[in-house]
């Protein structure tokens, strides 16, 4: 497939950016979203807005799902009912057990599943700079290359379907440690009467520096939390990590602390659904 038609099911924060990257690469896109306004907003890219999952997959060479969780991905792909043999590029973060369930549904429907969660948030999705954690049939590597190359700066092929979701748990566990660590240090500096900007300046350029700490840390200091990786999705993922840790026989005490802080932040915010994961700092304010 040199110019495959891609059905994108789910055009929220991540899916919309992925549609734009696919269109920028010249790939035909048929898109669907539960909120029709979100998919209509993408028609200016040349993507075709569809009224149902089944309409979107009609004539598509590849079906891509980018939805909130495993339940949503499974429900939508069942509604879509792609023809047997269609490659299903499943990019939603679904966790270990969710990946097993999507594999079972793919087998039931006769779909060729590539379990492919991504690393990256809104901006990398818009720029085609995601890291694609692909796992699935070896024979799909070449046919899916135009799609993966349009979406990502790098694709890792990890073996049988499910390996991508397992690695995503390890990667997100690290991401949440960095986010929560930055939040704690910024809150502590502020609480001790030190300008938290000095914390970021102190780590800059050193062995413990990371660009992510500066991006999220700057938002934490400013108290602005525009959504790049939404707090509700991050909280969901932290629960998936907790399940993965337990299934692997690894203590979940660190992830549990982060999850509890995310939940405290959600309780402290007026509209947690409209907040980025950097708002986790709101969960570190102790009542006085």
Could you characterize the architecture of this molecule?
The chain is α/β, with parallel strands linked by helices and 288 residues long. It folds into two domains: 6-160, Rossmann fold, CATH 3.40.50.720; 166-284, N-(1-d-carboxylethyl)-l-norvaline Dehydrogenase, domain 2. It contains twelve helices and nine strands. It has helices at residues 13-24, 36-40, 53-57, 70-80, 95-109, 122-127, 141-151, 163-191, 196-203, 211-222, 231-248, 253-268; strands at 6-9, 29-32, 48-49, 62-65, 87-90, 112-115, 118-119, 130-134, 152-157. The chain has a six-stranded parallel beta sheet with strand order 3-2-1-4-5-6, with helices on both faces. A three-stranded mixed beta sheet has the order 7-8-9. Helix 11 runs antiparallel to helix 12 (253-268). The model has no long low-confidence stretch (mean pLDDT 97).
A few lines on this structure:
By secondary structure, the protein is an alpha/beta fold.
Determine the N-to-C terminus distance. 62 Å
Instruction: Work out the oligomeric state of the chains in this entry.
Output: single chain
Q: Look at the structure and give the mean pLDDT.
A: 97
Structural class: alpha/beta
Counting H and I runs of at least 4 residues, what is the number of helices? 12
Number of strands: 9
Rg over CA atoms, rounded to whole Å, is 20 Å
Domain 6-phosphogluconate dehydrogenase NADP-binding: 6-159
Domain 3-hydroxyisobutyrate dehydrogenase-like NAD-binding: 162-281
Active site: 168
Protein name: Dehydrogenase
Outline the fold blueprint:
Blueprint: E1 6-9, H1 13-24, E2 29-32, H2 36-40, E3 48-49, H3 53-57, E4 62-65, H4 70-80, E5 87-90, H5 95-109, E6 112-115, E7 118-119, H6 122-127, E8 130-134, H7 141-151, E9 152-157, H8 163-191, H9 196-203, H10 211-222, H11 231-248, H12 253-268
Parallel strand pairs: 1-2, 1-4, 2-3, 4-5, 5-6, 8-9
Antiparallel strand pairs: 7-8
Helix pairs in contact: 4-5, 8-10, 8-11, 8-12, 11-12
């Amino acid at each position: 497939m040199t110019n495959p038609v891609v059905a994108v099911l789910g055009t929220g924060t991540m899916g919309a950016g992925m549609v734009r990257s696919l269109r920028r690469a010249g790939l035909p896109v048929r898109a669907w979203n539960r909120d029709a306004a979100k998919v209509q907003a993408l028609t200016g890219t040349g993507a075709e807005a569809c009224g149902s999952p089944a309409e979107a997959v009609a004539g598509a060479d590849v079906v891509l799902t980018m939805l909130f969780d495993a339940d949503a991905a499974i429900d939508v792909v069942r509604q879509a009912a792609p023809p047997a043999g269609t490659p299903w590029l499943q990019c939603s973060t679904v966790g270990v057990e969710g990946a097993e369930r999507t594999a079972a549904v793919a087998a039931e429907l006769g779909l060729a599943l590539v379990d492919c969660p991504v690393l990256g948030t809104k901006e990398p999705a818009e720029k085609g700079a995601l890291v694609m954690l692909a796992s699935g049939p070896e024979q799909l590597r070449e046919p899916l290359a135009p799609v993966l190359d349009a979406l990502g700066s790098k694709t890792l092929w990890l073996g049988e379907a499910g390996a991508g979701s397992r690695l995503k748990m390890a990667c997100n566990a690290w991401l949440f440690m960095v986010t929560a660590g930055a939040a704690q240090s910024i809150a502590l500096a502020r609480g001790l009467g030190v300008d938290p900007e000095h914390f970021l300046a102190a780590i800059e350029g050193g062995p413990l520096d990371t660009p992510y700490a500066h991006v999220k840390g700057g938002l934490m200091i400013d108290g602005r939390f525009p959504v790049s990786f939404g707090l509700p999705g991050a909280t969901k993922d932290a629960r998936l990590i907790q399940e993965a840790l337990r299934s692997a026989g690894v203590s979940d005490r660190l992830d549990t602390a982060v999850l509890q802080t995310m939940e405290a932040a959600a309780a402290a915010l007026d509209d947690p659904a409209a907040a980025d994961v950097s708002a986790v700092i709101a969960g570190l304010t102790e009542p006085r």
